[in-house]
Amino acid sequence: MSIARIHDANVGFDPQALASARRKPGRPKLQRRAVLRAAAACIALPTLESLLSPAEARAFGAQPLRWVSWFLPCGVWGPSWFPTTTGVDYELSPTLAPLAPFKKKVLVFAGLQNTPAVNPQGSHGCGPPGMTTCRQGQKPAINVGISVDQVYAQALGTTTRIPSMQLSVVDTTFSDVQYPAVYNGTTAWASATQPLPPVISPGQVFDQLFAGHTAASTDVAAQAALAKRRALRKSVLDEVTSEANSLMQRLGTTDRAKLDEYLTSVRAAEVAITQSGMTPSCDAGTTARPADKIADVPMRTKALIDLMVLAFQCDATRVINFQQANGGHSSYSSFPWINLNVDHHGISHHNGDANKGAQLAKIDLWEMTNFAYFLQKMDAVTEGNGTMLDNSLVFLSNELSDGNAHNQGATKYTNFTGPTGKPIVLAGSAGGKLNTGRHAIYNDASQADLFIALLNMLDVPVTTFGTAGTAPLTGLT
Fold it and tell me: Quick count: other Cβ atoms within 10 Å of Cβ 428?
């Protein structure tokens, strides 16, 4: 870990751990990585035990730990979101029903609040960064704080080729009550003044992962290879077939199955992108290709989710921020894919109307169906004695608790007596460190304290976080 290089007022570290890190500065750890190369095409592969030295094999027992921040916009309809029972025997709520296959691997919260991150107007503008920084953004100048994901990414340093990835299904933003529009558009912040905007193009993400260079590459040979594959509609796998076959012969049974599964996933992602008109392309010197996107929202969402899992499989990164949409007016104006012709932001201002609440709950259910698909993909990847999901922490929440109240804590609903609070679901256990399979109820506890505890599970010795985080949240292990 490279905690000595993190300097941000939003986070504090254990002094002894910080002093130790300064005495022994972290060095980039070079792992023996299997890479298939042909011409300008290359594919980084998952860690294969058959190719490890004895020392590397012993170290391989400790699986990489990953972090995901998953953002949902416009609050939730509490009566359908929050379970009414608690403990390990709780019943999933209607909105959380898609999580049933992973009930033992998720932790559902009630009673948490993130009040220091909300302004008096409960803005959708400063809410998204507040979800991950636990701090209220300022205006007119940009000033918020490092986000929880970037604390981990910066602590990892150069462990992975890509420090972190930011993905979103939409790229529209708006300035809410005079807050900078960038607040509305990203939950990843490298510092108080440095937002990390998300990418919405699956093609661009795929190029970054598998073309052997980033979208800004000026590698002429790599660009030529990409252009040739686009022209011939060839897969990147077609370039490395002989090397892949040769590698297969040198692997054990388990690694052959792992490699086959991985290459099949790469092929499936290419097919999905190609069928949607998303053939990978990369122009020299450019960092975004906004015109190159999948029009169908569910298809674009699925393509991005598939690529997120692939990014983890090849250990290209261990930190991802995903945004289903942006808050307020930047969310969807209608949902034809679930036969719902309502504006997300508008319906979130339900004024307690149960019929409007039911429509909002239908949107929430669709969002949780996407989340469940991601968990299913992660849980299908075997790692050591567990799965990719087991070796991750996936934090799902919202810029607001209730879109009508514009709050960050408990909400009272007519005819609903269950506990509420900030809608938060955790999936995965950081390699068994988190006690999942429960509905955990707290009494107005701080979300910032939750982040301290989770960063500690990721071996980052944080002692403070955000405006109000002063100690690890208890009852998690």
Answer: 30
